[in-house]
């Protein structure tokens, strides 16, 4: 994780480096980059939906795809938990 303040991760696999980062400050979608090229996306199907749309490279091994989705879900949960804690104050 390059920064505690940004919703992004650097992932290295098979000698290549990828960056998973929030598509925007206000959306829950995450975009996957190799360098500056967008190669994938993980995004919720709707504002309140628990379902996700996953578009990752077909050639990637399943464990790597699962790891990327897990990171996105983890960040969604963290955002949800912090929102709920803030609403309770």
Folded structure, characterized:
The chain has one helix at residues 62-87, and strands spanning 8-13, 16-22, 30-34, 37-44, 52-55. It is an alpha+beta fold and 89 residues long. Strands 1-2-3-4-5 form a five-stranded antiparallel β-sheet, covered by helices on one side. The model is unreliable at 1-5 (pLDDT under 50).
Sheet with the most strands, sense and barrel status: 5 strands, antiparallel
Class from helix and strand fractions: alpha+beta
Q: What is the rounded distance between the termini? A: 29 Å
Q: How much of the residues is beta strand, in percent?
A: 25-35%
Radius of gyration over alpha carbons?
A: 14 Å
Oligomer: single chain
For the largest sheet, list the strands in their spatial order: 1-2-3-4-5
Shape: globular
Question: How confident is the prediction overall: mean pLDDT?
Answer: 82
Helix content percent band: 25-40%
* Topology pattern, helix = H, strand = E: EEEEEH
Number of strands: 5
